[in-house]
From TrEMBL:
GO MF annotation terms: cysteine desulfurase activity
Cofactors: pyridoxal 5'-phosphate
Protein name (Swiss-Prot/TrEMBL): Cysteine desulfurase
Keyword Transferase attached: yes
Ranges for domain Aminotransferase class V: 25-394
Keywords of this entry: Pyridoxal phosphate, Transferase
Cross-referenced NCBIfam families: sufS
Entry's EC annotation: 2.8.1.7
Organism for this UniProt entry: Algoriphagus namhaensis
Claim: Transferase is one of the keywords in the record: yes
Family the UniProt entry places it in: Belongs to the class-V pyridoxal-phosphate-dependent aminotransferase family. Csd subfamily.
Amino acid sequence: MKFDIEKIRSQFPVLHQEVYGKPLVYLDNAATTQKPQVVLDAISNYYTKDNSNIHRGAHALADRATGYFEETREAVREFIGAKEAAEIIFTKGTTESINLVAATFGRKFIKEGDEVIISTLEHHSNIVPWQMLCEEMGAELKIIPITDSGEIVFEEFEKLISPKTKLVSVVHASNALGTINPVKQIIDLAHAHGAKVMLDGAQSTSHLQIDVQELDCDFLAFSAHKLYGPTGLGVLYGKREILEAMPPFQGGGEMIKEVTFEKTTYNEIPFKFEAGTPNIGDVIAFKAALNFINDLGKSAIKEHEDNLLAYANELMLPIKGFQPVGTAKEKVSVLSFGINGMHPFDVGVMLDAKGVAVRTGHHCTQPLMKRLGLEGTVRASFAVYNTKSEVETLAEGVEKIARIKNK
Ligand code: PMP
């Protein structure tokens, strides 16, 4: 192990509690990660010392808050390897980032008879906005199929893509199964056909090193709360020339250059897409979360999480009745499973009683569950602060629960 896990855990106050008299084992990190003390302090400091509206204030606090806010934009730029900070737009989350692209890029550039391609692995937030858009514009939504192990069938994607394809929007890493999609190949093929590519990075940004220039994706969406940062905050990255060609998303303050009753001119990017007072305190605190990740290093974090996933598989695969779901070769640290004869929700409740927090259900991927012939799964997802001993607690719990039904 490359880092001191106890030192890392000591930075997360929420982890040090008992539920039902048992130590909390938090394994619901794909839903949201816990926040380190530096993030909590940054939120508190902002409201204690700097609270002010940004960009137009003519006073010291407004200057300070604006400076910190824009520092986070620069930190996000660096985090994903974007060319310039103007390509970083703050949103409410991955969901809003995708909806922004659907409502602006989509309405302007996707017309009747055009096609949008997504995959079977998608979260509802990367399905529904495209369905809504296609319905409105008379375009068609095409779906890349997957194998039983939860990997997209690339040859089928090759068959689907055509000059009609205007956008391919795929999840980088699946929240339900952990599958890492071959996004570089997808992007290269899409571009060869003149289509733009959006990546849903909600799950990948916390585990994988991301360089948007190297990937050459046109858009990337992700959420701060899955990166040890605050809720209600997300990012949309877009290439400058595409963002400039897109109409604004919402109208209001901040996004304008000049307003008259006859005509309004719009602000430069990124402000054109940031109407109204943004989530200032959380944006400022997000920088502390990014620093926390950068200090540990993504590759060390990934190695730690991969080890936990491998250990979980080692302990649980031999359990009678344990059924892993999603066995792709390339995965982030997500373990979806079922227990023979048991409803996932019941398994979740029984694990909860042992202090183990997991997610159960369809994970906002109903079409994927349908494809796999499942109602849902139990999902354990690991983060930087999880330990081998917590994996053992999970495995012991699963073993006991499975024994009830699989004697
Ligand atoms: N896509 C994926 C793959 C996700 O895991 C999530 C969150 N579960 C989302 C999109 C939506 O993110 P948010 O709810 O933060 O907007």
